[in-house]
Design goal:
single chain, alpha/beta, Rossmann fold, six-stranded mixed sheet, four-stranded antiparallel sheet, binds adenosine-5'-diphosphate
């Protein structure tokens, strides 16, 4: 079944209970003959911090890339804030989503990547201001004020006029976090945000994220190999293996009393 036909006209809009922000329903993603996600079901409640753990290649990053609409599911549906990512309602029926709909739903989602992906030709301040001005149409002075506040929050209020290459990797990643937050997303997706950093720069980035997790009501979906960080910030941990959630629960449960052999094996290899 293709992504364009996997919601029938009879199907109602995604279920919204007021708390559920992200929902994956029977999502299948294949690359060639390789089924990377296999009828994946999971949901994330608004304001919660959910961490995806599991062996390399188990499909964690694919989930974040689907949410960013960088790729499409082959089957199943994904919704954010009660709107399907791949479909929209027109004249009472669901049709494949147009670009405008996708852009609207995506405004609710911010992502920080392994490789910071800053605009190299723009100073730090402009990196953070750019999307609110061009995508949201925010007045420049308001965007600048917000960018300065966010840069202060990530400890870089004094580096507004630097270019990305003049900063350390850890500082660049903190700018990338400020840039994602500048769009006031409901969800922050974090994809292995410390794995490209020198070890001495990791703590500063994780401290900033801990602070955000503990002081804001943003929903976080996080892929990480930093198990102490996962334990600190998560409300829920999902253990993936071969494109399925094989176990989920509080960090206490997953890290101290895992039920599944694969979880125990994985944790003993990484802890
Ligand atoms: P994880 O984040 O758990 O390490 P990924 O989601 O990155 O896993 O990848 C899951 C599987 O999908 C891997 O086998 C990977 O090689 C494959 N994969 C991911 N993206 C692509 C792509 N664009 N083309 C082909 N295979 C891909």
């Amino acid at each position: 079944m293709s992504a364009d036909t996997n919601v029938s006209k009879e199907q109602p809009n995604p279920k919204v209970d007021g708390k559920e922000l992200i929902r994956f329903d029977k999502v299948v993603k294949r690359f060639g003959g390789n089924t990377v996600l296999d009828e994946l079901d999971f949901s994330v409640a608004s304001g919660k911090h959910v961490t995806l753990i599991g062996p390399s290649g188990s499909g964690k990053t694919t989930i974040l890339r689907l949410l960013m609409t960088l790729i499409k599911p082959d089957e199943g549906t994904i919704s954010v804030g009660g709107e399907y990512l791949t479909h929209e309602k027109k004249n009472g029926t669901l049709v494949p989503a147009g670009e405008k709909h996708v852009r609207e739903v995506r405004k609710n989602i911010g992502m920080v990547f392994q490789q910071f992906n800053l605009f190299p030709n723009m100073k730090v301040l402009r990196n953070v201001m750019e999307a609110p001005v061009t995508v949201l149409g925010m007045p420049k002075d308001e965007a600048e004020q917000r960018a300065r506040e966010l840069l202060d929050m990530v400890g870089l209020g004094d580096r507004c006029d630097a270019y990305p290459t003049q900063l350390s990797g850890g500082q660049q990643q903190r700018v990338a976090i400020a840039r994602a937050l500048a769009m006031r997303p409901q969800v922050l997706l974090l994809d292995e945000v410390t794995s490209a950093l020198d070890p001495e720069l990791v703590a500063g980035v994780l401290d900033v994220l801990r602070d955000i997790a503990h002081t804001t009501d943003i929903t976080m979906l996080c892929v990480t190999h930093e198990m102490n960080f996962a334990r600190d910030i998560s409300d829920q941990v999902l253990m993936f293996d071969a494109g399925r959630v094989i176990e989920s629960g509080s960090p206490e449960k997953i890290f101290t009393e895992p039920e599944h052999d694969r979880t125990r094996e994985f944790l003993s290899a990484v802890l």
